[in-house]
Amino acid sequence: MKAIIMGCGRLGEQISRLLVDGGHEVCVIDYDSTALERLGPEVRVRKVRGIGFDRDVLLEAGIREADAFVATSASDNVNIISARIARNIFYVPKVVARLYDPRRAEIYRRLGLMTISSTTWAAERIRELLLHADLDSVMAFGKGEVAMINVDVPPALIGRQVKHLTVPGEITVIAITREGRALIPILGTEFQKGDLIHIAVLATSMDQAETLLGLGGGY
């Protein structure tokens, strides 16, 4: 995959390193040469200095051949403008913009633009850590109405079936990792010692999930 990362702050730098480690071709755009220098010679990326929504800069970065464009600058406005140019003018297949304002993120999501709101994610993560410390929430959906949690199978569930941890429309076991391999269970699947359970839970049903798992309640 050929990817362009616009913005070389901490997030842009980390994404660049992850993609390069995965064998992808990466070009990083930033108007600050000092920021670009943080990606040392050990990180095999192309570097283009300039404004992320400037047409000539984007062309120099290879946007006509890009498979993905990620806008991670510190400005919501710059991220949205550059992401919309990448998507609507250069037809880049995969475009993601990081936004700080969750209200704006929802607006642009409705327009079909993939956005990540670090503010919303962090707020939901902190809330879950405070209220449900025994549950490892790894992802939230929508505005946090649904969370995906991972939990080691508690002793009380070993030998019992998935249906005993299922509440239709509220709590669903979506996968089990067993001996390093993941499987999609059915209601009759029995939990085994050492299982890691992956569960989708309504935020309003977290306390109920803790009860079914035999974990301590929230505050």
Provide the β-strand percentage band: 25-35%
What structural category characterises the helix and strand content?
A: alpha/beta
Indicate the percent of residues in helices: 25-40%
Find the count of extended strands (DSSP E, 2+ residues): 11
Quote the distance from N terminus to C terminus.
Answer: 46 Å
The mean pLDDT is 85
General shape: elongated
Q: Poorly predicted ranges (pLDDT <50, ≥5 residues)?
A: none
N-to-C order of helices and strands: EHEHEHEHEHEHEEEEEH
Instruction: List the domain count as a whole number.
Output: 2
Strand order of the largest sheet: 3-2-1-4-5-6
Q: Can you tell me the CATH class of the largest domain? A: Alpha Beta
CATH superfamily of the largest domain: NAD(P)-binding Rossmann-like Domain
Radius of gyration: 21 Å
Q: Could you say what the CATH topology of the largest domain is called?
A: Rossmann fold
Which CATH architecture of the largest domain is right?
3-Layer(aba) Sandwich
Please give the largest β-sheet: 6 strands, parallel
Question: What's the tally of helices?
Answer: 7
